[in-house]
Amino acid sequence: PSSVKLESEKALQRACTPCVANAERAPALKDRLQHLAGSLHAIGGGEVLGEEPQSLEDTVARCESTVTALEDIRDSHEAQKSQLQGMKMKYDAEKARAEEAEASAAQSLEEQKRLEAKLRDEVARAELAEGDVARGKAELDAALDRA
């Protein structure tokens, strides 16, 4: 066991060897956390960070605030993703309706063509029949004239 002087205490405080070893690593951890805070901030697309935090606690607070900003970005992304999925569903439904309307229009066009062909056939038959009636009338008139 060792003794250390803590800011909040007047007398030396007992500390175990592993705890003192952890305290010795604090400056290196602070540097790593500052780098992590900068990386997180850059991922979030933030502006260049100002002055580096002086304490380990300030560095952790900067990481936490940057994570909060990243969570907000993630939430916004999820909302936009949901909105996009809704728009895609509407698009797919409208596309299906358009395809159905196009198929229906194609069927109607085919039916119209079939009916037009049938009408042309009927008109041709009527014209033939009219010609036959006219010839028959002419023959009848000629027979009456001879009689």
What labels describe this entry?
147 residues; single chain; 2 helices; two-stranded antiparallel sheet; 80% helix; mainly alpha
Question: What does the model show?
Answer:
With 147 residues, the chain is mainly alpha-helical. Helix content is 80%, strand content 4%. It has two helices and two strands. It has helices at residues 17-43, 56-146, and strands at residues 2-4, 13-15. A two-stranded antiparallel sheet has the order 1-2. β1 and β2 form a beta hairpin. The chain is rod-shaped, with a radius of gyration of 46 Å. The N and C termini lie far apart (152 Å). The mean pLDDT is 90.
Q: What's the arrangement of secondary structure elements?
A:
Layout: E1 2-4, E2 13-15, H1 17-43, H2 56-146
Antiparallel strand pairs: 1-2
Tally of DSSP helical segments: 2
Strand order of the biggest β-sheet: 1-2
Q: The biggest beta sheet, please?
A: 2 strands, antiparallel
Quote the average pLDDT.
90
In brief:
With 147 residues, the protein is mostly helical. The chain contains two helices and two strands, in the order E-E-H-H.
